[in-house]
Amino acid sequence: MEAAGLPKTRPPPIQLSLRIRHPSMDPAVISQELAIEAEHSFKAGAPRQSRSGLAPSVHPETYWLAILEPSSWLIDLSFSGRSDLALAHQRLRDPAIEDLSSTLSLCAMRLRARHAALLRQIRADGGQVSMIIALATKFVTSFGLAPEASRIFSELGITLEFELTDD
């Protein structure tokens, strides 16, 4: 039953998640290194429910998944008392997040600048890194990926996975 009087929230037109699979790395280390709390994670070797339910089972690999918030990475400039400057700042901020190409470029540059060594180590250890890009087709009808961003994701070994939704 839906709560009366509560406004329906519109899902974001773009949602980015980072997913890491690794043979043995502790998910807490991943969270600490990336400074992002996982939405879902488990460690290789940790007990898990077996599919048959008969025999005890363990996770064969570490799994870590977190939603990225690129809007929080932008510099938050304070314009107290200057509503015209605050409006200009908001107009600059919104397209950077609503525009997929800009958002992916921002993510690529940040991941390279702050976490390249970790991401390369994960790949060298036999792990996998993916960025899941969920797009609401109602709000995002097309996009481009800048060559620089594509190159950075490739250098870091990050697979881009697109999920199209009807939300």
Q: Overview of this structure, please?
A:
- This protein is α+β, with helices and mostly antiparallel strands.
- It has one domain.
- The protein contains four helices and seven strands.
- The strands form two sheets. Strands 2-5-1-6-7 form a five-stranded mixed sheet. Strands 3-4 form a two-stranded antiparallel sheet.
- α3 runs parallel beside α4.
- The longest helix is centred in the C-terminal third of the chain and has 25 residues.
- The two termini are 20 Å apart.
- About 7% of the residues have low confidence.
Which key terms come to mind for this protein?
alpha+beta, 5-stranded mixed sheet, two-stranded antiparallel ribbon, 7 strands, 35% helix, 24% strand
Summarize the structure.
With 167 residues, the chain is α+β, with helices and mostly antiparallel strands. Helix content is 35%, strand content 24%.
